[in-house]
Write a structure and sequence with these properties.
The structure holds two protein chains of two kinds. By secondary structure, chain A is mostly helical. Chain A has two domains: about 130 residues, no CATH class; about 220 residues, MetI-like fold, CATH 1.10.3720. Helix content of chain A is about 65%, strand content about 5%. In chain A, strands 2-1-3 form a three-stranded antiparallel beta sheet. In chain A, α4 crosses α6 and α14 packs across α16. In chain A, about 45% of the residues are buried. By secondary structure, chain B is an all-alpha fold. Chain B folds into two domains: about 100 residues, no CATH class; about 240 residues, MetI-like fold (Orthogonal Bundle). In chain B, about 80% of the residues lie in helices and about 0% in strands. Chain B contains 14 helices and two strands. Chain B has a two-stranded antiparallel ribbon with strand order 1-2. In chain B, β1 and β2 form a beta hairpin. The longest helix of chain B has about 40 residues. Chain B is flat. Chain B starts with a helix and ends with a helix. The relative contact order of chain B is 0.10. Classes of the chains: A mainly alpha, B mainly alpha. Chains A and B meet through α1, α11, α12, α13 and α14 of A and α4, α6, α7, α8 and α9 of B.
């Protein structure tokens, strides 16, 4: 050692040199622990910042009113013929609702200074008349009766009940006035307005910019489900077949090498490049429709294939050669040995890999943006197989869509949609882990 | 007849082929399957393969070549029926049905494996073709060397890739500067210090980060990290007023890369032979000295490979930068300013109504090809390094 002074005079005495080395050891160890804590803190922050505001999306403000469906306003002819009834637009239904609300407010004895009639009707969602119209068209017999209804409140009133909008922000907001918030308070005391469970969030289609309160995930969940069906139906058989070929039959030659290199590289190609492929080949060359689940499904299939192939090959490799040798020894052909013995034994591992691949595909956004799934879709796609060609949305794309809207109420919707997405992923991953725990064999 | 019903009819024909061929094989052998060369089912499957194969090929060919006509459908069905009849004629006790079926299945397996090649070819060819169209309208020197990016609807746009490339590299650099030390230290701690129970809890928790979709990270950048950095760093320091910034996107992407770096490094550190550690510890080195002077140098090539893979991941990442980095193409050094990346511009040029003759749209394919080339070379380099290193200890 060059550091003569630091040398211990006795073995029993700790030198300053040793002390320094031990301090360095402690520091190094603390760095490691710190890195792990940073990772865990990031995870906590990420989940908290998304889950916190998202929970609000599962509750929605409704106004509870008895509504008199005036025959004079909704069915002048008196025939109750659905074709004639369709002539009454949402404007007509809006007036019916406005009248019912004004009566209910007057009856409850609510009087708020400076509150105009327009402001009273402004607490109702713009979507409410359309919902009432659909209800009446589906059941014309309701006309002329008085029915108790829960209708959607405007997004700002909803925000007020959830604490997002306050009297101070309302004063600066042209879409809502402090007087309307007082009205909401007064109605809340009388049970006319309340926050209820929002089942429509999972079933309703998307809604336009001005109607965040009506926006739901129905079309997106259906579109994602269609795409997952396609991915499962294509990627699993193709991936398993490719793995069997590479693992059990492929001779060592140039073609096999080429396939191996391609799979390794495809696994690392940025997902957006698959979107370009989908746009150029499936839409521009093959002429498939834009925004269709079939195109999204095909693109995600190509993206998921490497994942499934890598997982399948690992589980095929894990089946010991003795199984194959025993089958061959008893006179089975190589094909029979693989399909009758190796494949069933590898099945749990393959399924686990397939589920994880599906989970990855479910959360993928970028390629779907390029094939037109960002389009605003309100119509539910039809039943498969024809429905696969109808325009639809997808869960992650719907989230992206909502982040691009101006109204802050859509941030709550986007976070809520992320909760739904993460819940699906959680279920899939849990299923994969269970499958592995339950069925995986150790040889 | 629609495509679906044609396909269903084909399936029905094939199914009847299975039943007929199997029954015929058994009948030929007088009901005694031992007199047959193959199992009775093999005769059935041979008939199915022969019936479906050519008919489906013709069906696909007609579908690509021309709009469906009744004559085309009839031709497909007739081909299937003819093949069925021929396969029945071939069904005799000495027909080597198993070999035929297995050859057919092997061909199918091989076809499935070739999908990977077809995908790569599709990616490269589609982008090359459109990129050629783009360079026919726009000078390639301008594209690669110009420092302005300003697409205009009327045409006469400036489409220089340099500002986008700079934004991409800057954001990736910040992400790596954050993720590599954190991921590496986490991996070292878990591989060398952590006890079994700590590892069993913490490792999956860190890996949860890898399973979260990037759109979630994007929203995290948009609603949490962006405003946080703006209010507590950028504005007090007078560096900018935008929530979307290089720093926002870089940090969030760094969080995304932590599990990627840590699990790859963990594997590589675990591969360093225990004898190296034992030798170092036996000579009196502390554990951290062993790690810094023995384990890490031995694992270095693998770790470099992992970092390159992480870099390729960062360069190709889309949703985080779309939501966190902004849309302004700028060449600057201020990390609290909004900048943009190649992937953001691919998305913005290709979404919405796009005219596939205009250079403003076609440029996205040139950007995509550049991105593909960069990530591909990084991956190839990383894999080569990792592979070379692996051979060292195996």
């Amino acid at each position: 050692m060059s550091d003569q002074a630091a040398r211990p005079t006795s073995l029993l005495e700790r030198s300053s040199y040793t002390a320094r080395r031990h301090a360095a050891e402690t520091r190094f160890r603390a760095c490691g622990l710190g890195a792990i804590l940073i990772g865990l803190a990031a995870l906590t922050m990420l989940l908290a910042s998304v889950l916190g505001p998202g929970l609000g999306a599962f509750r929605q403000t409704h106004i509870h009113l008895p509504i008199h469906l005036d025959a004079a306003a909704l069915d002048k002819s008196g025939t109750r013929d659905p074709e004639v009834l369709k002539k009454v637009t949402t404007l007509g239904y809006g007036k019916v609702i406005d009248k019912a609300l004004a009566e209910a407010v007057a009856q409850a004895g609510i009087a708020i200074e400076g509150l105009s009639d327009a402001e009273i009707s402004g607490i109702i969602s713009r979507e409410a008349p359309a919902q009432l119209r659909r209800k009446v068209l589906a059941n014309p017999g309701l006309i002329g009766e008085t029915i108790p209804l829960s209708i959607l409140a405007d997004g700002r009133i909803d925000g007020y009940l959830k604490g997002r909008v306050t009297a101070a922000t309302a004063a600066l907001d042209s879409n809502v006035s402090p007087a309307q918030l007082q009205l909401a308070d007064a109605m809340g005391e009388r049970g006319l307005i309340s926050l209820d469970l929002n089942a429509a969030f999972l079933t309703a289609p998307d809604a336009s910019d001005q109607r965040p309160e009506a926006a739901g995930l129905g079309v997106a969940i259906l579109g994602s489900a269609y795409m997952m069906l396609i991915v499962l139906a294509l990627a699993l058989p193709i991936g398993v077949a490719a793995s069997i070929y590479l693992e059990e039959f492929a001779p060592k030659n140039r073609l096999t090498d080429l396939i191996e290199v391609n799979i390794a590289n495809l696994a690392a190609v940025p997902s957006i490049v698959f979107g370009i492929l989908g746009l150029a080949i499936f839409i521009n060359v093959a002429g498939l429709p834009q925004s269709a689940p079939v195109v999204g499904g095909l693109v995600l299939t190509l993206m998921t294939l490497p994942t499934i192939i890598i997982a399948t090959r690992a589980s095929l490799k894990a089946v010991p050669p003795s199984i194959r040798e025993a089958a061959l020894g008893l006179g089975a052909s190589r094909m029979q040995a693989v399909f009758h013995h190796v494949l069933p034994l590898a099945a749990p591992g393959i399924l686990t890999g397939a589920i994880l691949g599906l989970a990855q595909a479910l959360g993928e956004t970028a390629p779907l943006l390029l094939i037109g799934m960002v389009a605003f879709v309100r119509e539910y796609p039809g039943a498969p197989p024809e429905g696969l060609f109808d325009p639809a949305s997808a869960l992650p794309v719907q989230i992206y869509n909502w982040t691009q809207r101006a109204d802050p109420a859509f941030v709550e919707r986007a976070s809520g949609a992320i909760i739904v997405l993460l819940a699906f992923l959680l279920v899939m991953n849990a299923a994969a882990i269970l499958l592995r725990r339950r069925f995986e064999r150790r040889w | 007849m629609t495509a679906t019903s044609t396909l269903l009819t084909l399936l029905v024909i094939a199914a009847s082929g299975f039943v007929l061929a199997r029954a015929r094989a058994l009948a030929c052998a007088g009901g005694d399957s031992r007199a047959l060369h193959s199992l009775p089912g093999h005769y059935g499957w041979a008939s199915v393969l022969l019936t479906l194969g050519p008919a489906l090929a013709l069906f696909a060919l007609l579908k690509i070549a021309a709009p469906p006509t009744p004559a085309g459908t009839l031709a497909v069905l007739a081909l299937a029926l003819a093949a069925l009849a021929w396969s029945l004629r071939r069904t005799r006790p000495n027909f080597r049905a198993r070999q035929t079926v297995e050859r057919g299945v092997l061909a199918l397996l091989m076809l499935a494996a070739c999908v990977a090649i077809a995908t790569t070819a599709g990616i490269v060819l589609s982008m090359l073709f459109e990129t050629r169209n783009f360079f026919a309208q726009y000078d390639w020197r301008e594209f690669f060397l110009s420092t302005t990016w300003a697409p205009r609807f009327q045409g006469d746009s400036d489409l220089g890739i340099l500002p986008l490339l700079w934004g991409t590299l800057y954001i990736s650099l910040i992400a790596l500067v954050f993720a590599v030390p954190v991921g590496l230290f986490a991996a070292i701690y878990m591989a060398e210090y952590a006890g079994g129970r700590f590892r069993a809890i913490v490792k999956p928790a860190i890996e949860v980060l890898a399973g979260i979709p990037t759109i979630v990270y994007g929203l995290f950048a948009l609603i949490t990290v962006g405003p946080l950095l703006r209010d507590y760093f950028a504005q007090p320091l007078g560096l900018g007023t935008s929530g979307a910034s290089v720093m926002t996107a870089g940090l969030v992407m760094g969080v995304m890369l932590i599990p990627f770096v840590s699990s790859l490094s963990d594997d590589i550190i675990a591969q360093v032979p225990q004898s190296l550690r034992d030798g170092s510890l036996g000579l009196g080195a502390t554990r951290s000295e062993t790690i810094r002077q023995v384990v890490l140098p031995a694992a270095l090539p693998g770790i470099v490979g992992a970092v390159l893979l992480a870099a390729s991941r960062a360069i190709g990442e889309t949703m985080i930068v779309v939501l966190g980095a902004g849309a302004a193409a700028k060449l600057g050094l201020n990390p609290f300013e909004a900048m943009t990346t190649i992937t953001v511009k691919i998305v913005s040029q290709l979404t919405g109504e796009s005219d596939f003759a205009a250079p403003e749209t076609l440029v996205a394919f040139a950007l995509g090809l550049t991105l593909f080339a960069i990530t591909l070379s990084l991956n190839v380099l990383a894999l080569a390094i990792v592979r070379k290193y692996r051979e060292q200890y195996e």
